[in-house]
Amino acid sequence: MKVFLIGAGPGDPGLLTLRGRDVLSTADVVVYDALANPALLEHVRPDAEIVYVGKIADDHAMPQEQINALLVRKASEGKTVARLKGGDPYIFGRGGEEAEALVRADIPFETVPGVSSTVAAPACAGIPVTHRDACSSVVFVTGHENPEKGGSVHDWDALARSGSTLVFVMGMRNLPSIARNLIQAGLDPATPAAVIHRGTTPRQRSCVAPLADIAEEARRTSCTNPSVVVVGKVVALRDSLNWFERRPLFGRSIVVTRAREQASGLAADLSALGAEVVQFPTIEIVPLDDTTELDRAAENCGGYAWVIFTSVNGVRHFWSSLGKAGKDGRALAGCKVAAIGPATAEELARKGIVADLVPPAYVAESVVEALLAREGSSIAGMRILLPRAEKARDVLPEELEAAGAKVDVVPAYRTVPATARREEFLARLEEGAIDCVTFTSSSTVENFFSMVEPESIRSRPEILLAAIGPVTAKKLGDYGLTCGLMPDKFTIPALVEALTGHFSGKPRR
Known about the structure:
Elements: E1 2-7, H1 18-26, E2 29-32, E3 49-52, E4 55-56, E5 59-60, H2 64-76, E6 80-85, H3 95-104, E7 109-112, H4 117-124, E8 138-142, H5 156-161, E9 165-169, H6 175-184, E10 192-197, E11 205-210, H7 214-220, E12 227-231, H8 238-241, E13 253-256, H9 260-272, E14 276-279, E15 283-286, H10 292-299, E16 306-309, H11 312-324, E17 336-339, H12 342-350, H13 364-375, E18 383-389, H14 395-402, E19 406-417, H15 422-431, E20 436-439, H16 442-451, H17 454-458, E21 464-467, H18 470-478, H19 492-503
Parallel strand pairs: 1-6, 1-7, 2-3, 2-6, 8-9, 13-14, 13-20, 16-17, 16-18, 18-19, 20-21
Antiparallel strand pairs: 4-5, 9-12, 10-11, 10-12, 15-19
Helix pairs in contact: 2-3, 10-11, 11-12, 13-14, 16-18
């Protein structure tokens, strides 16, 4: 029985602390706010209870008193409760009130500090809240005071005289009066001011103006809640230090249709370049109901001249069957191993196997060409094992057999349609909030259009359709759609590089 008050950070899921991640992964119950990125829930146990209690200006899913009672009740049931709060629990997050309620109920608790938006949002807008040449102190101020307190408790004269950087949170509704109060207290109307909307996230947007004009500029640029307001000389550094919004894919919304098990690398690369990644896995990788054939092939793999792996998943599931037989990579000592693509070769390397052959083009047809170039006519009569998806193109085994090889095609895993993110994708499509959809296999195309009407994409020619290779591009054509981008090399890094080049210098929405 224990409650953990966890700071979820300012919005970027990568800014959750390691301690926060570890607690989330073991909690029985997770209670989270609107400002806690839902992506953080991926760290939660599948069987954990998840309760949303979000509060955004005038839209409270649950009043604070009920949240306090919820934490006490769940902990009293003997459960470990993770209370996930945006930013830091004790910086304008009412975490202190929740802690007090736990103390009154004699519930043990722990506070896990988080990265506060008061410093993170300005940092991602190129504004250090302190600077040796500009100011040596910072004041954090709530822009949304308790309406029951009766009058402002802020000493506006002291704030205006302080010479400190002033950082206001939850102040967008009161921004005109904040600026007016500071100016009336003696602060120069020309003092630089900034508003950072959704700081640290791909949707970040910031604007800068003199204090006297900042409210109007925020309105003009649609910088609404949640936003952080910064007032002070340090704001002038934004033009030179604004690294975050200058990343090549910043402001682009890119859909990743890979299976969740495979998507992390592509999603991470796109995110690092500033893109807002919309995860829409169209397929799921699942084990076979019956692995007898794969288990038998793995146990007897030493009898093959070549074992050809066409994907990372094929490697992983094959190794699972090796393990069942009490074997490891040494079982392949008598054969040669081929891998389609560097990612598959890297997965083999992690298993202690250096691929004997990685064809120059990462498509099935190239494997046959490379094998013939290496083995010549001696491929005739060779036994070749091909562990792969249950349903896959027949080009590779057919061409190997045409060259005289004896090919055993063994299912290693299945791909099934995934529908979990369909509604989120369709909502974004309706909003016009998608710049690109990426496809990394023909199966992702097929499964995508089993959930999304092709016409809904055809009617939006502004959306770039990117395919990893010619087979995938051709599959798009089968649906009457044109592939707008395909890398020279059919790899994930090459696809990311091509996307970066395509969007570089183009105006954002």
